[in-house]
Each structure stands twice: as C-alpha cells, then as structure tokens.
C-alpha cells in the first residue's frame, strides 16, 4: 500500500496481486492489497480511478477531474481510500472516511471527490503512503504525520484513538525518516541510516520484534540493527526489507491469509532471509548495492521486486528550487519562448508554501534536525538566490508577483516547524529598497500576525537562532518598512489628507509589531544587535506634531512599540502623559537636546519639617488620596522661604534616599558592592509598610521628573519591567558569589566539581544562619555537570525573586501608586535606572561650558580661579559640589547635555569673610570675589562639605 511513483523504465514480474505496477511507459498503477481499488497515474500527471465493485454513487472507472490541471507526482491506495500529491506540494484524499483516514477533519463516512488536506498545507512532503484505513506522510526533513484508524497503534502516537486530522509522530523526531510503508494495520519506517522501525498490529509477527504483541510507539527492529536496509515494503500482514550490502531480502510476518487453516505456515516473528522473488540478472547487478537500484513491493500473499535502470527517477517529488534551475532561468530569460516556460516554473514554486519550505535546505542532512530551535534553512543560499535574481529585474518581478499572491493565503495554523521556513526565507527574497518590496514585506508582516500566540513563540525562537548578521538584516528590513510607513503618515498629517490625523491604520502598525517582536527577541538573546538599529527617527517629528497640537492619542498608539524610540523620545512621551494626567495648562517645548515642560496645573503641596523629615514624608503619603499623585509635586520646607522650582523636590528625594540607605538604620540589606537589596524572608523584617512607602516615593520621583538615587542593582529595574534577572545581575550585587557560580558553570573537570561538595541549598544570613533548599530534597542533591545550570538558575531566582517576594510586591504596588503614568514601561532597564538615579558620571568640562554668569565675565580672575580650583578637586568633592548646587550629586537625564547653573557675584563688602552659597531652587551659585585662590579653595571646600547650599537663599 505504499505510494506509487512514476518510473522511466521497469522490468520485473508480479506473483499474485501487487500494489502498483507499470502499465505502459511512464504510467504507474497503484492498488490496494485486494486489487479491488486502484489508481493510474499517467505520464502527464493525470489520475484515473478504478473499482472492481464501486461504492454507491461511484462509477467503475473515472478520471479524477477535480484535480484539474495539477501535475500529480505520487499516488497511494488504501483499503478504500486514495491519496495524491501534486508537484506544487498539495496533498489530496478521497474515498472511505469511516476512521478519519482522509485527514480532512470531516465526519462524513465517504467523500467521493478529491479534497485538499488543509492541515498539511505548507509541509514539503517527500512521500505519501496509505494503509488499510490509515494514512501517513513523510516530509523532506523526515517528519512523519499519520491519521486514520489506530485501534492497533498503527499511527505511532502512543494510544489507540483514531485521528481525523494529520498528527505529528513525535517519537520519530530526528529519526531522519526517508520512507514509510503501510500494511493493513501496521506501519514500517526507514531512516536515512538504514534502520527500520515498526508499530501497530503485531499479531502475525509483521513487526519483526520476535513477538505477536501490538506496538503503540515506533520500535526499532533489533534483528536488522547494523544491516543498513535500503528498501522496506508492507503487505497486509507482513513486511519485506532489502539489504543491498548482502543483496538479500528479509521477510517477517504472515503471507498465508486466505489459505486453509491446516495449510498455513507458522508466523515469521523475526526477519529472516528469503530467496529473491525474481532473478535480478545482469541488468540489475550494477545497481544491486544501491538503494535506487531495486524496488520491492508487497502484495496480499506474496511479494515481488521491480528492477529499474534509471535510479534518478526513484522519487518524483514536489518542485523545489535548485542552483541549476536558477542558472537556467538566468541564461534563458532573454528568449520569449523560454521565458514563458520560466514563468510557469517560477509560478509553480513561489505560489506554493510547501515548495518554498522545501527549498534552500541545509546540506549534509542538517535539515533533518529541524525543530522549534532549528529551521533547517541555509540562509546563505537564500541570500545567494536573492543576489542572483535581483540582478535580473524581469525574473525578480515574476518571483515577487507570485509571492505577493501567496502571502494572504499562508497557513495560519502551522503544525510543524517546517511550516515556519517561509517566514524566514521570504524577507530575504523581498529585501529590496523600493515601494513594491516594502508592500510585499507589509503583506508578509500581516501573514505573521495572523499566527496564534504559541506559533509566534515558535517563530521568535527560530529568529533567536539566526546568525547575528542575518538577524540584523531582518531588523533592518522591518526598520525601513516602518520608516516608510511613518513617512506616509507624516505626509498626510502635513497635507491634511482624508484621514484621522492622530491614528495609524492597522496595516501601518503591523510592521511596527514585527519590529517590536524582533526587539523582544533581541533583548532575550543578550542584545546581539544594537538598540539603535530599531530606532525610527521619524517618530521625533510625530512627537513634536502631537505635542504642538496637544494631542496624545497617536503617541499612545505608537508607544506600544517602544523599540522605535530613543531614550529622549521615551522621556518626551512620559512627559506628555504626565501633562495629560495633570490636565491643566501645561506647556511643553523641546530643543534638539532637551525637553522642557512648564506646569501651571494643579499642585500638591508637600510640607516637610527637616527635624521630622521621614516621618512627615510618611504622614503625607498616608493621608494622600489617589488624585494627589496626579498633581504636580511642590515641596515646602517648613520655616524656609524657598519656592520649589524643581530644586526643593529634588532635594527631598535625594535626602530621603540617603537617609533610608544609612547603614544600621536602613530597612535594606547592604552589600560590599555598595548596593542595597530587599531583606530576605529569613531576616524577619517586621515593618510591612516601609517598602510600600519607599516604592511610592520612587514612583513619585519618576512622575515628577526627579531623581531618587537609591543604590539599587540593575535587577530591580528588570523586575519592575517584568524581566528576569540573570547571573550577570547577581554578580553585580554579589561579585564574589557571582564569580563562584561562573566558575561552576565553566568547570570542565568532573572531579573538581565533585570536590566542591555543593548541593541544592543556599545559606541565608538572617537572625540565624538558615539553610534553604533551592528545590525539594535539595540537601541530598549534589551539583554535577548535568544539573549545574539548573542550580545556578535556582540560585539567581532565589536571591532576586523567591526570597524577596513580599517586600518587592509591596515596593511594586507603591511604585504604581506613586506614578500613575504607565508609559515608563517603554524604558529599558538601563534607561529606567538612569532616569531614576541620574547619570553617575558627569562631564565636568561640559558643566563649565554650560555655566552662565551675572555680574561676572567668563574672563574674570575669580571665575578662572574657581574653575582652576574645581577641576583639581577629587571626583568625590566635585560630586559634593553638584549636590551643594542642585540637591543631587547626579545630573538628571532630562538635562544631560544642557544642565546649566548661574554663577552670581553677591557683591559683598568683605568677600573673604563669606562662604559660597547656592539656591537649589534656581541653580544659582553665589561666589564672592575672593582675594586669592587659596581662600577660594578653603571656603568652597568648607561650604560643600557642610552642605550649606541646601535650601533656597
């Protein structure tokens, strides 16, 4: 019942009824084992059907007209059903369907007209086979699919439930299947290495396992191990194989069906050699060690051998692309007659998802490893094809035209990793920089976004395993398409075209969705591609346009794709959202290097006494309503005259962070790295509200564009953004522990790893030294080379997640309360960290360059002396001066390039007696005209060390 194939010339003889024979030159007959139903495949790819006793409403002989003009390359006959595979990669079935053997998902018991098996659409099939009431197929990369009757386990799926749709036989994954054959109720599979697996009914010994037991899962025929079988064929209850190196045929099972019981031979339970059913003769000797030299088939009671001379015609498969074919297209494209032939060839391949998926396969059988992690596609061959075809515009246009027609019909429910090759291949065939290619890539993006979430995950996995150069090219493609989309959007905005000026159409956002997906893949794989490759510069113009017209809806739509923004763009969107939330009279302006927002909306006056600093902060937060956090924070230090223009609120956050992190009084755990982290559950921290309050304070700082310089590790900002911390993050917090864990991962000697005597536990530093198990029974599980990755992952997870679950949850809830805006989630962890903590490094010469003066000139002696003294100060003292001036020792990210302060002459009568002072409200530095550089240095150091600039003069 194996599939019939067209052959150029065959010789042989049939003893009894066979499954397919040669009728005349270039025609093939395929029949069931009873010879009651057979198909004939003509030389031009047409199929006719014949019944000895036709079912009701069926003619005895008919041309299968519903296959139309399709070129059929393989046929297979089951008990009462038929299969046909076209050169374009489509599989059709018809006939009896009582067990779902047609694979159509239909409950109809009989379907007389050939129907497309939709479930296998896009799978590049290499072979088809039909059993009594079950069907199987093999893909070019060895994936096996089965469906239909399964009462003996003949589908190889581990159970006895029938299937009415093709199911992937997972047990044969990476088996490198190249051929499959079906008996009445059993199946045999041949691998490229010459191994044979059988499964299904075993009552007659037809599985070859020295048993009459049924097998629900594929099982290797042990007696044939090492024999390197080249051919396998199943009869109704027997199996025949051929070993070319021995020039022998092996038989197992029973060929006595239909014989009187007293004349039957004992069942053959293991493979044993038999005499050749035919004398192969000299004409076959030259091929008798070749897999392609001899073809064996099995009938009802007897088997037979067909000898053929043309071994290249052994398999007539679907159309795939080869270098020779492309070279032929190029060399003959100038001829009008030949070009018509070439167009048909191009149409055949590029109008078929299956044919594209079956092309560009990796050599040396690597494609047999195709999985969710490995595509099996040779991307260099794809790029080589594009390079060739792009130099021939006529050919390229034909390819593009067929691809454009195909894209809307791509499978939305793929069943195999082989389905996904088309999504990897086509972008690199459509990578031109003109409008037509952009249109094609948009169509491809739409097809991708029709996939189900689990299928998108598979595609993302395949993307993540692309070589970096290919992945970067893919990013560049969709970055350009996105840029082109937004260019059209901006043009319509400026020309007042007939559209909603603040909304993108759905088809315009699809390439942005793909770009964002690629960005997420990039972030999970360690940022192999620079983030700047994802930026779309035109969004700056859209941001400016929306801010100018005080409209935010387009920005909210675009904010779903944060990868297209650079950091300053994300800050602008956060500021715009704050503007909307504050609701009243805010105005925004932007230079090329900074964003300035002036608020005249509702304000929240936050009164704080310095002597009760933290207690007043907590009281304010506890009494605040939700609406208060949507207002503009204005800090008032009780008893001081200063007006908060940004400096006082910054001072509040800076002092709060410094106070809350003081060793001995801090709720946090301090580490030698200089960083702080939440206390573990073993520490017994009793203040349940403190982390909610600290989180609220941090959220308020973000919402009000202020820094709150808690020395948190990068891991906190990852957790805020729902990203998992890694070993690199642990090494930042605990450098020694991190180095030890890296050493465990990189240790190559088993003995050295064993001598470390490590198990799946961790020592917690709480009120008592507690040993915590990282997994159940962890104290009794030693760390080995096999499980060390799991150990390290569990260690990292415990430090950053499990041990601090409650305090972090409290912190997160407070953070969301303090920052009612949500666009901050667009930031990368490193960006969110620098927004909240400020820039840890300062360009001091840029600070000098940006300074402005009152009652002074840049060339005055006092100014020159000041900068001379300042630049010679240690880094620590310079940071102290910045805190003395602005309330923070860091430069806010909002003013990175344009942080300016004013140096003013207080015009005192006795300047040598005065200390410098500063107004943190307005960033004014009052510098008297000292008589000497030494006095200036002495007074400056005293002032900044005693923080006499904090507050407002």
TrEMBL record:
Range of residues in the leader sequence: none
Active-site residue list: 921 (glycyl thioester intermediate)
Compositional bias ranges of the Polar residues kind: 276-287
Mapped RCC repeat ranges: 89-141, 142-193, 194-245
Gene Ontology cellular component annotations, sorted alphabetically: cytoplasm
Biased composition (Basic and acidic residues): 1-11
Molecular function terms, GO-annotated: ubiquitin protein ligase activity
Region feature Disordered, mapped onto this chain: 1-28, 256-287
Keyword Transferase in annotation: yes
Pfam family, one: HECT
UniProt entry keywords in alphabetical sequence: Repeat, Transferase, Ubl conjugation pathway
PROSITE patterns tied to this protein: HECT, RCC1_2, RCC1_3
GO biological process, one term: protein ubiquitination
SMART domains: HECTc
Tagged with keyword S-adenosyl-L-methionine: no
HECT domain boundaries: 625-953
Name of this protein: Probable E3 ubiquitin-protein ligase HERC4 isoform X1
Species assigned in the record: Lepidothrix coronata
Gene encoding the protein: LOC108505563
